[in-house]
Amino acid sequence: MEQIINEKKKTLSRQSSSFRLRSPSLNALRLHRVFDLFDKNKDGFITVEELSQALSRLGLDADFSDLKTTIDSYIKPDKTGLRFDDFAALHKTLDESFFGGEGSCCDGSPESDLEEAFNVFDEDGDGFISAFELQKVLKKLGLPEAGEIEQVEKMIVSVDINHDGRVDFFEFKNMMQVALVPSS
């Protein structure tokens, strides 16, 4: 297992920081959303099978027996899977193991956090999120909105201020501020 972790560290250290969750104010909300996405049957637990399927959908195939060994150490006795608190503890351990814990990739500012999120969607790195890129990420996450490109294009149009058919960072930032700031 230690060899696998060391190999993953090398691989992950070369990857974009866009997979790291840094802003403490948004981290719990994001983690809850990820937990809900992975909990396919909505029973409040993520089983090893559900986690394996979710990782596979994201293109992160893991050896099932290694995954089971790791996950089982976080599952409380008499439980069938990870509760949210268990999942959060697992996330924290993985973050510390792979990324050195809080603050190792960036300054943790809301701006850099948004840049990281934007880069997840901007797969080709051209500075824009196209409908195709958005659809790919939504599919990886197993979201039904990814089913039809017309639906995804409507999502783009709804935040595309300059009407160029794609979302730039300014539009993404504006959309995220509207989505995350509760209206009074």
UniProtKB/TrEMBL annotation:
Residues 26-61, 109-144, 147-182 form the EF-hand domain. PROSITE patterns: EF_HAND_1 (PS00018), EF_HAND_2 (PS50222). Keywords: Calcium, Metal-binding, Repeat. SUPFAM superfamilies: EF-hand. It holds the Pfam family EF-hand_7. SMART domains: EFh. PANTHER family: EF-HAND CALCIUM-BINDING DOMAIN CONTAINING PROTEIN (PTHR10891). This is Probable calcium-binding protein CML43. It comes from Camelina sativa (False flax).
